[in-house]
Amino acid sequence: MQSFSHNVLNPGLPARFSARLVFTRSISLTRAIENGKRKQQDSALRHDRRHQFPSHRQKGQVLEHNQDQQSTSSPSSSSSEPPASFISSISYTTASSEFLYGTFSVLSALRARRRKIYNLYRLPSSSNLELDPESETATSYTVAREEIHHLARHQQVNIQELRGTDALNTFNKLSGRRPHGGLILEVSPLPRLSINALGPVVSKQDDLQLVPSNSTPLDTGVDDLFRLNGNHRTIPSSRPPNQYPFVLLLDGVTNPGNFGAIVRSAWFLGVDAIIIPDHGTSPISPVSIKASAGALELMPVLTIKNERLFLIESRASGWKFFTAAAPPPTKDNVSPNARIEGALSNHPCVLVFGNEKSGPRKFWRPYMHSTVSIPNARGTLGDVDSLNVSVAAALLTQKFFDFAQPSVVPAKDAKLESATSSPFVDSFGLEGSKIF
Question: What does the pLDDT average to over 258-264?
Fold first, then answer.
């Protein structure tokens, strides 16, 4: 008993016993932390099981939850965005579905409301996304994204959030690895009207009259955009009071970036419509729509199958045709501007642009009233002897509009009038001319 009391009262023993107690407590805390982590992981795993997709349930698979995948497999969308159903893959609603990407391409389609809109797909807002160059700052991107969700809710569009380890890669594939801003819109193709010819224009403020072909599909989008007026379809006039309709015809412009850039400038400057042949020109695609900054969602697009019939009947209705080509090697006595001055103030006009390398096809030349060009201010100095077709289209379009202003409108061009009476005129007879 004395020995026991002695041991208990030994001054060294409490210190050793106390140290042992501290060590034991430290082990308990570590285990508690580890147990807490396991419970948290189990909770996340149970959450994923509740939200896993049918394909995963069938295969007995569960989405793994770890730190690397947290941005795509955990709820992370901004609270300002509407709720969305979670999906693991994207499929076509219809065989003709198109997938638009890019903040303003998606926004323009929702604003224009010319398509059927099937689904809005998004990535979680916390995903590491490369900002769309169209939205210069994170603020403008956020504002645009909020408007997109607002319009989608208002139009009762199905909003779905793509999750899983491969979500970002799926978006990158659909966008051709171009910046998409975490948003992709599944839509129907844009409505296009197939025409035989451009109709007569009596006065400058007349709506643009179109002679539709029999192949025009029955589409509510076509009916809304190109209104039926007797045997004609019409595009409402939004032109200044001093000019006739002005249309661009793109023959063989195969680069979708150039095609979209031309439409962007054309819409901005006030062109009434774009005409493209059924074959040989870049199709309207997500790439060209993105290059147009959404202008293709607004611009009326017309297609033609029989170019010869189109030219003959449109000329008979009073339309004047100009082709854009590189200036000839020899100087002409008539200034290129002389062929543009007054044209749009006196006649409805079509300006034809050809392929980026070879220019307009020779087939078009006999039907042209005149050829227009942009002179090279540097002459033969240096290797830059041409302009990109989209740049040339913008410059020449603005030239036509500038010379339609009242302060610069001359009397009717006698040369152009005489060309009108001649069925086939080739101003230069250019051989192998190159577009700008």
Answer: 96
